[in-house]
Design goal:
Shape of chain A: globular
CATH class of the largest domain in chain B: Mainly Alpha
Radius of gyration of chain B: 26 Å
Strand order of the largest sheet of chain B: 1-2
Number of helices of chain A: 11
Oligomer: heterodimer
Largest interface: A-B, 69 and 65 residues
Shape of chain B: globular
CATH architecture of chain A: Orthogonal Bundle
Number of domains of chain B: 2
Strand order of the largest sheet of chain A: 1-4
Number of domains of chain A: 1
Mean pLDDT of chain A: 87
Number of helices of chain B: 17
CATH topology of the largest domain in chain B: ABC transporter involved in vitamin B12 uptake, BtuC
Low-confidence stretches of chain B: 1-8, 91-98, 429-438
Helix content of chain A: over 70%
Strand content of chain A: 5-15%
Strand content of chain B: under 5%
Number of strands of chain A: 4
Distance between the termini of chain B: 11 Å
Largest sheet of chain B: 2 strands, antiparallel
Radius of gyration of chain A: 19 Å
Order of helices and strands of chain A: HHHHEEEHHHHEHHH
CATH architecture of the largest domain in chain B: Orthogonal Bundle
Structural class of chain B: mainly alpha
Mean pLDDT of chain B: 81
CATH topology of chain A: ABC transporter involved in vitamin B12 uptake, BtuC
Chain lengths: 304, 438
């Protein structure tokens, strides 16, 4: 019982991170209909920025964990958004209007570029940072095993929930949100109504990158190790989450992320840690076979 | 319509300087966390190091580069404008540049074939060149296999390395456990890969576009993870070594032996190059067979059906075509060709491990098909050459080779979004169906 509770906590934490990254995939897919393979690597870049930020603050002697976390979060989000903007501007905007596979290949190229750029400039070795937030609350003890909710897990879940609330407000209530949704429905019509479509797309990429950056800071804080290859696995998982939830659907992305996180946590504990990726993909395949548009996605209407 | 990266009407130097300054500012922002700052392990704890001079140099290079690029773009634009003014009204149709017409293409094709045939004769004592040419041909073969699926049938398969792996492991296991030879194992491994293709294709081909992409990607990863973890079967991360090499109709390529060897049978002096050149011709022959097969199939009803389905699936259904069967046949054929390439890969390397069949491999094969121009057989050859040679050329500054590789993928897509040889025309075309320049 305690073990199951622990896995539930771990799974939700992991799922929150996947969900944050998945939103970036789903938004970009919704607005320009492409799989942005470089998104996982944007997340990886943000994790490196976070490592530098935390180390810098420690060097300057900042003692307060809350202050450090807040500063690093803001700085990382800002720099990573610039990365999101630049990636779109360099690799995708010149390809607007070309066949669907073309930006996909360009994004794979961008992903390879970012991975190797980070490997060159930041080194190929794993970067460990000392745990910043220790301690937690013991919840339940059964047969000598104690389920424990650590403070860093509380922070991850809290930040995710707050961010999602802000994000939902942004998309549903603000004029940017309306423009973004309008572009998703019909880019040509939106342009005719005098909305700068390119700018909206750029902002969407920056927003996606910002959410990925939050995920990057959280993971850096939670696990404390970062290397240049983490973007690939996290990216694939998050994309799977986006598809599972129904690509293009924002609540779907979060739901998909949570499901993937839970599956991973329970599977690696009760069955086998080696095959947890197999489990993730098998479930994805099963869901797609029986519900091809994902859990919360709208069924695709084919028009002749 | 050709699109350039960015053109504004102003061509004065102030404008250009402003633009370059803006780009340099972005470069500065991008560079601060990655180039300006880095962390290094100093006695167990991370420490931040600064590299401001390097960042300054980077920003300066970006500034000058952007200035130069803008200048060249403006120059090009002005020249085009004057030309247009001289010619008067120019319609979009005549503006369309002729890249390469069919006759030139087929001439290039024959030329490439000729070069491929004589290459090992010319470089008979240069192992490096023949080895690289063999690698190029493996990718050509893989590209042609995937081209059937992606280029002809229009199904986005992002896990092609899975079939490559199945073929390679099938041969490795048949050879090391049951003592099968290369030539017996080749068709059987191809068949096994086909079965895998059918097994994966059957459930997933009901999905469309990007969903199919993620499912094939997922299957590719599943196969790789199983290969890594099922140690008893596949040797796990250590892979399988000492895979027997192919022999020349029963004559082994060894310096000496009880039975006649290739060298002694033909009265030649033994040379390790014999096997390398032989392997080169084997893969060349396999590739040519593939090409002949695909070219033939394109003219048969099934090939027409693939292209018809790529162009309009709903119309195909309306005409009563069995879309599932058409998709499956393309998928199975692609899988078989991938498997055959895998057998060759295993036999050539003598050692395989799951490392060789990662998602990167699938991405490279897909990139070859798309960069080449989907559906174009010659395009696949050119793209394989480019993608294999870029890392090879970069070997001298090997840290940068994958960086160069990624950059090249982006630049080629921007330069020619339809691929190096945009040959996406259906083999059959209705006269009235005008096409894209409407």
């Amino acid at each position: 019982m305690a073990l199951a509770l622990q896995q539930l906590i771990n799974g939700l934490t992991l799922g929150a991170v996947y969900g944050l990254i998945a939103i970036g995939y789903t938004m970009v897919y919704g607005i320009i209909g492409m799989i942005n393979f470089a998104h996982g690597d944007i997340y990886m870049v943000s994790a490196f920025i976070a490592v530098t930020g935390f180390t810098l603050l420690t060097a300057f002697g900042v003692e307060s964990v809350v202050l450090a976390l807040f500063v690093v979060l803001v700085v990382t989000v800002l720099f990573t958004s610039v990365y999101g903007w630049a990636v779109e501007r360099v690799a995708y905007r010149p390809l607007r209007g070309s066949a669907r596979l073309v930006p996909l290949i360009s994004s794979i190229g961008m992903s390879i570029f970012l991975q190797n750029m980070v490997q060159l400039t930041q080194g190929a070795r794993v970067k460990p940072i000392p745990p910043m937030i220790t301690g937690g609350v013991d919840l339940l003890t059964v047969n000598g095993f104690t389920a424990r909710l650590s403070y860093s897990q509380v922070i991850i879940v809290l930040v995710t929930v707050l961010l999602l609330a802000a994000f939902t407000w942004l998309i549903t209530r603000t004029s940017f949100g309306r423009q973004q949704r309008a572009c998703e429905q019909d880019r040509m019509m939106t342009a005719l109504l005098g909305i700068d479509v390119d700018r909206t797309i750029s902002l969407t990429f920056m927003l996606g990158a910002a959410l990925a950056a939050v995920a990057g800071v959280m993971v850096t804080m939670y696990y404390g190790v970062v290397d240049f290859y983490i973007g690939f696995v996290a990216g694939i998982k998050a994309f799977t989450a986006a598809v599972l939830g129904g690509i293009g659907s924002l609540p779907g992305a979060m739901l998909g992320g949570l499901i993937i996180g839970l599956i991973e946590a329970f599977w690696s504990n009760y069955l086998s840690a080696e095959y947890k990726d197999v489990a993730t993909f098998s479930i994805l395949i099963l869901v797609l076979l029986f519900r091809p548009s994902g859990l919360l996605g709208r069924p695709e209407v084919e028009k002749v | 319509m050709p699109r350039l990266v960015s053109i504004s009407d102003a061509s004065g130097w102030t404008e250009r300087l402003k633009d370059a300054a803006g780009v340099a500012l972005i470069a500065l922002l991008l560079g601060i966390p990655m180039i300006g700052l880095t962390t290094a392990d100093q006695g167990g704890a991370l420490e931040v190091l600064t590299r401001w001079p390097l960042l300054g140099a980077f920003v300066a290079v970006v500034f000058c580069g952007r200035l130069l690029l803008r200048y060249l773009l403006d120059l090009l634009k002005r020249r085009r404008q004057t030309r247009e003014r001289q010619q008067g009204e120019v319609t979009a149709v005549t503006m369309k540049r002729v890249w390469l017409d069919g006759r030139v293409l087929s001439a290039i094709g024959w030329l490439v074939l000729g070069v491929a045939l004589v290459l090992p004769v010319v470089f008979s004592d240069n192992r490096y060149v023949v080895d690289i040419a063999t690698t190029v041909l493996i990718y050509v073969m893989l590209g042609w296999g995937l081209n059937v699926v992606v280029g002809l049938a229009g199904l986005l398969d992002m896990g092609h390395a899975a079939f490559y792996a199945v073929g390679a492991y099938a041969y490795a296991l048949l050879a090391t456990r049951f003592g099968w030879g290369f030539w017996e194992a080749l068709p059987v491994a191809g068949l096994i890969a086909t079965v895998f293709g059918l097994a994966i294709g059957w459930p997933s081909l009901r999905l469309r576009g990007d969903y199919l992409a993620i499912v094939t990607l997922g299957f590719g990863e599943i196969i790789r993870v199983v290969l890594v973890n099922w140690t008893d079967f596949s040797g796990g991360p250590n892979g399988i070594s000492q895979i027997p090499r192919p022999n020349f109709f029963g004559l082994p390529f060894s310096p000496s032996g009880d039975r006649p060897t290739f060298a002694s049978f033909f009265g030649l002096e033994f040379s390790p190059m014999h096997r390398i050149i032989f392997l080169y011709y084997v893969i060349l022959m396999l590739s040519l067979l593939t090409n002949a097969l695909v070219a033939r199939l394109r003219r048969l009803p099934i090939g027409r059906a693939w292209e018809a389905m790529r162009e309009d699936e709903i119309a195909c259904k309306a005409l009563g075509m069995d879309v599932t069967k058409i998709k499956l046949s393309a998928f199975a054929l692609g899988a078989m060709l991938g498997g055959v390439a895998g057998v060759f890969f295993a036999a050539r390397q003598g050692f395989i491990s799951p490392e060789s069949f990662t998602f990167n491999e699938s991405a490279i094969i897909l990139a070859i098909v798309v960069l080449g121009g989907m559906g174009s057989q010659l395009g696949v050859v050119l793209a394989s050459l480019v993608l294999v040679l870029i890392p090879e050329i970069g070997r001298d500054f090997s840290e940068y080779r994958m960086l160069l590789f990624g950059t090249a993928m982006i630049l080629i897509m921007i330069w020619r979004p339809a691929g190096i040889l945009s040959h996406r025309e259906p083999t059959l075309r209705h006269a009235a169906a005008g096409g894209e320049h409407a």
